[in-house]
Amino acid sequence: MNAGVILAAGDSSRMGFPKQLAQVKDKPLLEQVVEKVNQHFEHSSVVLGSDNETIAEKINFSNSDILINENWSEGIVSSIRTSLFFYQSQKDIENIVFFLGDQPEVKDSVIDSITSFETEGDEILISQYRYKHNFPILVPRMFWSKLELLTQDDSPEFENSVFQDFDLIDYFLSSEIKVKNINFNFLGPKDYDEEKDF
Fold this sequence. Notes:
This protein is α/β, with parallel strands linked by helices. The protein is 25% helix and 24% strand. The chain has a seven-stranded mixed sheet, sandwiched between helices. Strands 2-3 form a two-stranded antiparallel sheet. The longest helix is centred in the middle third of the chain and has 13 residues, at 76-88. It is globular. 39% of the residues are buried.
């Protein structure tokens, strides 16, 4: 069984207010993503961090679980770990499909393709739009432990985590992990205001 995870813990510093609450087509940005994911997954969750209380009050999460990433300032890698820890004990969940909280335009056909693709659970599935990789990304359980080991650098020499700019797609493509590109002949979803901070 698959679970959908929406990464939405960033602080949207350039916008001056939570990007998750930005009104797009008369509805908060994050709520649109939640609705999309809930249409395709029986199990889903949203990882919140910065301003989580404010966001939780203003978004309808429907059936999605709300996960709080206390270490959100560490970057997206901490949100990934938060979701993996949550699903680790749920043995019926075989794969996690990661979405970004600021990409409401992911097409239904993309989600259907990536969740219905037949795999032995030994490869990562990454959406590829023409020549560019993007979300959603399907990660089978056998790879969760590798991602859980990614952690912040606690050395006092570093003001920020060395994983602050961690890119999940680059991580998989540059590793020895088996990756399968799911190709689509159209442009991929754009990040709202191009700020990848979830």
